[in-house]
Amino acid sequence: MRIFIVIILLLSALGSVNAKEVVVKIFKKQFIPAEIIIEAGDTVIWKNVEKRQYHNVWFKQLVKEEPDYIFPGESYQRTFSKPGDFAYECGPHPKMVGVVKVVTRQ
Q: 20 to 30 Å CA-CA from 52: which of 13, 46, 78, 96?
């Protein structure tokens, strides 16, 4: 029984080892890069590197209410578990747009 538990734990750890974190900077009212391609299980971290301006990351197709603001020096992260194209925008600045394309993990 112990061997079975150890094997399960090892397999779980291997799955998370392959997951990556990808950083999108928020600067000069832009998401940089505006389009990214990641694998299912990866996490995207949006970092606000502005000096004074607040923003947010709003996936309107997933969340109807506008999310909290990300102030300078703060960040927001989201892990994507399923493949698909996920468009987002900044609520206070709707011309700021981006997309996360999630593909099946190889």
A: 78
